Amino acid sequence: MVLKIFFPQCCNQADSGLLVGRWISSQDSAVVLAVIHYPFIPGHVKQYIQQMQAKSGVELSVLGSWSLPKDGQEGMESFLRDLSTIFPQERWLQINREVGKTGFTCQVLQRDQRVDNEFNLSWPDGRVVQRETKKKNEKVDEGAAEAGGDKEEQEEEEEKVIFVHYEQRKVMLSQLHPIENGVPDPKTAPPSELRQVQDIKKYDDGPLKSTHWQTEGREASIIVELLKQACVPLCMLIGWLLSVWTWICNIRIFSLYPLRFLSSKLSTCVQLSYRTEHMRLLSSPKPAAGHTQFMRKANIVVSLLVDVALGMLLIWWLYRDNHITMLANMLVPAADHVAKELDELLQWLMGAPAGLKMNRALDQVLGRFFLYHIHLWISYIHLMSPFIEGILWYGGLSACLGLTFALSLLSDMVALLTFHIYCFYVYGARLYCLKIYGLSSLWRLFRGKKWNVLRQRVDSCSYDLDQLRLVVVLFQGVLHLSVDFINSFPLFAMGLRITRPYRLAEGVKFRVLCEEPGTALHLLMEINPLKCSTVVQTYRTPTYSCYPRDSWAALVKKLFVGELIYPWRHKTTKTD
Amino acid sequence: MEDEAFTDINGKSISLDCQCHSSLCSEFIVSVPKVSIGKVMVYTCCVWLLAYAVFFFTENTAVLTSAIFITLAGMMFHIHFVKVDHESLLVIGSLGVQVSSSYASGRETTTFIEMGKIKDIVINEAIYMHQIIYYLCVLLKEPSDPDAVSSVVPLFQSSKPRLNCLVKVYKSCQEIISKC
């Protein structure tokens, strides 16, 4: 059987000592976690290991010895070999390395069978020594009963060793994303289980000196530590503010039917409730339990910060150079222009558009109906015109809560202002849908038979989808989608994927380090980071919109088929 | 290291490189011919001539700018996401099998399948329209039922080598897998 030894890169230059780690007998591999340096007292080592085992619940043991002899440390090897008698192990690994050479040599001593199974190799710098000595034993023969001659037995019992080098810090900090069938890769399962050990290894004071991934110091920054300290009072403040806000929202007067219906449809109110939910999640004083919770909290914080920053930018742009007055002055003439265009269009359709003969009565009814709508709307706009600047000024202030608020406010205003156009769209789409349904059923009936020219008559003015109506509905849809997108996009996870790709792991990948015929195999194990699309899919926060993920295609398809689009319909938020 | 003249299923020449790192580990790299400069020039010229013709009628310089952007973006997209430079299979006895494709821009996508999940590596036949194609694939076994095949992972999908190349890879893989 091939023995795989996972060796951390940080220990490549460590002083001689004992190897501490874990055996995984199902995979026939050994994971080395740390090297405890000479001088030490074996009793202390056993105590230390027992302590760590008790704290982390992971089975640790002394795997063997490591020797990198420096000046004045001759005789280390024999000392380390004698240690194998003190620590009771099934197999004892003796890994040697010499200063200046890149290769490792490994000897595996089987204690039970008391056979020296030496498989010595040296690195090729001219001295290639390959010695295979074997002492036969009755127990060993049992295992190789069928083997005839010496040579076959030798090959069967030869322990082949593969060294897999890994960067301990990255493996310890990475989070494995399980594959669909839920069975995690056993190669990374050992490091993920042993992550609990990292907290214990922080405290290095004691009678033992060791080398592991944290001996070089942990990566940390003052800002992060300060923020952690400031967290608790901040959480309490947010919690108090939230309780006041929810008390206001729950006042009886707001639960009356029309208000409640409106507040569930207007996207500003929905966005407010959504953010309240987020703040409630953030203000809980307990630290996040588990990786998913942590990622969700981090995503919320980052997206909130980015939102507010962009909102501030918008405010800065809006309130200088009289942009608001400019916008307000543009609005009324634009509305007049729209109304005029619609009037002309309807007059054209009520006549004989493009020479088509239409159903006169239906044309007149629908045309007059729409014209009256437009007249009402234009009067309403003229009534509102003195207040528009004020509304824009105060509405713009809402951007300090975040860009998403400004966008949702804009979306609501557009919706209210163009409600009449939406009504036209509804009438037209319904008639169009009926027409299409009728035509398709007729087509089914007449397929393969004689084509009746009479039936080809086109009826009602709603056959042509008005460009303007299309634009307005699409614009509303786009605004809604963009708010939705900003809300649900996992910024923190994407940032983590770009700056520290080893934190989000999909799996591992191997690279062969050296290739020389006749020497042990050295592999480098690296973290295979998650794909960007998988990051977005996994960490997307659930949103309140009814639009499916491929919303753009669905939107266009609905328009063509004649299915109605409800821009204000929301899915109820899923509660965990 | 061997390098013979193999072809893919469409007749284009590819090259196979077998590296035997040890008795337990070998790597097979199938390389596809690179993007030819002639094709690139032909496509670019076509797009730009078309854009110039449109510009001639519309007198709008935005057409030319957009044609340039489209050509650049299209080329970058092609070499980063579409054009595969070489595909490799690394078999490590008792550890697993690693499949990786490397694109023309240098991007590499890797998947590692560990030995416990692998049932076998076989050559399968597939009928595609009028052709019968041979492909090498890894059979994965289900954890609950070791005799059933839960899924099939095809190898060398972009380079699509022919049977003679596949047989070579298959023989070396079986040597390693059967040992453990």
TrEMBL record, chain A:
<keyword id="KW-1133">Transmembrane helix</keyword>
<dbReference type="InterPro" id="IPR007720">
    <property type="entry name" value="PigQ/GPI1"/>
</dbReference>
<dbReference type="GO" id="GO:0005783">
    <property type="term" value="C:endoplasmic reticulum"/>
</dbReference>
<dbReference type="GO" id="GO:0006506">
    <property type="term" value="P:GPI anchor biosynthetic process"/>
</dbReference>
<feature type="transmembrane region" description="Helical">
    <location>
        <begin position="300"/>
        <end position="319"/>
    </location>
</feature>
<protein>
    <recommendedName>
        <fullName>Phosphatidylinositol N-acetylglucosaminyltransferase subunit Q</fullName>
    </recommendedName>
</protein>
<dbReference type="GO" id="GO:0016020">
    <property type="term" value="C:membrane"/>
</dbReference>
<keyword id="KW-0812">Transmembrane</keyword>
<feature type="transmembrane region" description="Helical">
    <location>
        <begin position="416"/>
        <end position="437"/>
    </location>
</feature>
<dbReference type="Pfam" id="PF05024">
    <property type="entry name" value="Gpi1"/>
</dbReference>
<feature type="region of interest" description="Disordered">
    <location>
        <begin position="131"/>
        <end position="156"/>
    </location>
</feature>
<feature type="transmembrane region" description="Helical">
    <location>
        <begin position="365"/>
        <end position="384"/>
    </location>
</feature>
<keyword id="KW-0472">Membrane</keyword>
From TrEMBL, chain B:
<dbReference type="GO" id="GO:0006506">
    <property type="term" value="P:GPI anchor biosynthetic process"/>
</dbReference>
<comment type="pathway">
    <text>Glycolipid biosynthesis; glycosylphosphatidylinositol-anchor biosynthesis.</text>
</comment>
<feature type="domain" description="Phosphatidylinositol N-acetylglucosaminyltransferase subunit H conserved">
    <location>
        <begin position="88"/>
        <end position="157"/>
    </location>
</feature>
<dbReference type="GO" id="GO:0000506">
    <property type="term" value="C:glycosylphosphatidylinositol-N-acetylglucosaminyltransferase (GPI-GnT) complex"/>
</dbReference>
<comment type="similarity">
    <text>Belongs to the PIGH family.</text>
</comment>
<protein>
    <recommendedName>
        <fullName>Phosphatidylinositol N-acetylglucosaminyltransferase subunit H conserved domain-containing protein</fullName>
    </recommendedName>
</protein>
<dbReference type="Pfam" id="PF10181">
    <property type="entry name" value="PIG-H"/>
</dbReference>
<dbReference type="InterPro" id="IPR044215">
    <property type="entry name" value="PIG-H"/>
</dbReference>
<dbReference type="InterPro" id="IPR019328">
    <property type="entry name" value="PIGH-H_dom"/>
</dbReference>
